Amino acid sequence: MPFTPFHLGPALLMGFILLRYLDLPTFIVASVLVDLEPLAVLVFGLPYPLHGFFHSFLGASVAAVLLAVVVSGVRGSLGFLDGFLGPGERRGPRGFLVAALLGTWSHVLLDAPLYGEMRPFYPFGGNPFLGADLYLGLGAYRFCFLSGVAGVALFVFRYLWTRR
Q1: What's the pLDDT at 78?
Q2: What is the pLDDT of residue 101?
Q3: What is the rounded distance in angstroms from the CA atom of residue 12 to the CA atom of residue 143?
Q4: Are 2 and 140 contacting, i.e. CB atoms less than 8 angstroms apart?
Q5: Hey, which of 13, 44, 124, 143 would disulfide with 135, CB 3.0 to 4.6 Å?
Q6: What string of H, E and C letters represents the secondary structure of 31-58?
Q7: What is the Cβ-side half-sphere exposure of residue 119, based on CA atoms within 13 angstroms?
Q8: Which residues contact 100 (CB under 8 A, 6 or more apart)?
Q9: Exposure pattern of 17-51 as b/e (b: 16+ CB <10 Å)?
Q10: Residue 66 CA from chain centroid, whole number
Q11: Taking the CB of residue 70, how many other CB atoms lie within 10 A of it?
């Protein structure tokens, strides 16, 4: 995806489907975290591929572990998110790690069919996903947009349901 907001659609939908098992805020942040890499390349003019190390499963795993550590440290001060976005029970470091891993890995899977410079299985070369149709025949942008619409609808439904 050229713009990180496209990743929010699938993250929101998948996060709500798996809400009972995932920490939704961690999952959503993780799904866009990986795009700090191309942002840094563009902003600082780095001689580095836009979709480099962090757009691999290994790099995404490193980012996920770092995010899980940070979230574990600050989540207590953000407890108000638990009742609104999550099922209410507190998640531990393991739950944050699972959400972060799934979020960053889903980012890699969404981008891999689109970008030839990606090496999802770094240190191994090549991109076996390039050109693959992982989007249910909808195309990448339509898939992400429709996932976002469905995710927002679930979010609104959950919000209205919990207010009753």
Answers
A1: 58
A2: 96
A3: 13
A4: no
A5: 143
A6: HHHCCHHHHHHHHHCCCCCCCCHHHCHH
A7: 10
A8: 26, 27, 29, 30, 63, 64, 65, 67, 68, 71
A9: eebeebbbbbbbbbbbbbbebbeebeeeeeeebbb
A10: 14
A11: 14
Name the one residue in this structure whose structure tokens are 């770094």. Answer: 122
* H/E run at residue 152: helix 140-163
Q: Give me the residue spans of the domains in the chain.
A: 5-163
What span, in angstroms and rounded, lies between the C-alpha atoms of 52 and 32? 15
For residues 11 and 25, give the distance between their C-alpha atoms in angstroms, rounded to a whole number.
10
Burial bucket for residue 61 (CB in 10 Å: 0-12, 13-18, 19+): middle
Torsion of CA 53, 18, 90, 68, to 10 degrees: 0
Q: What is the pLDDT along the chain (164 residues), one digit of tens a residue?
A: 455 678 888 998 998 888 888 888 899 999 999 999 999 999 999 999 999 999 999 999 999 999 999 998 886 665 555 555 554 455 678 889 999 999 999 999 999 988 999 999 999 999 999 888 777 667 888 888 899 999 989 888 887 887 76
Task: Confirm if 66 and 37 have CB atoms less than 8 A apart.
Answer: no
Structure-token pair, residue 111? 């981008």
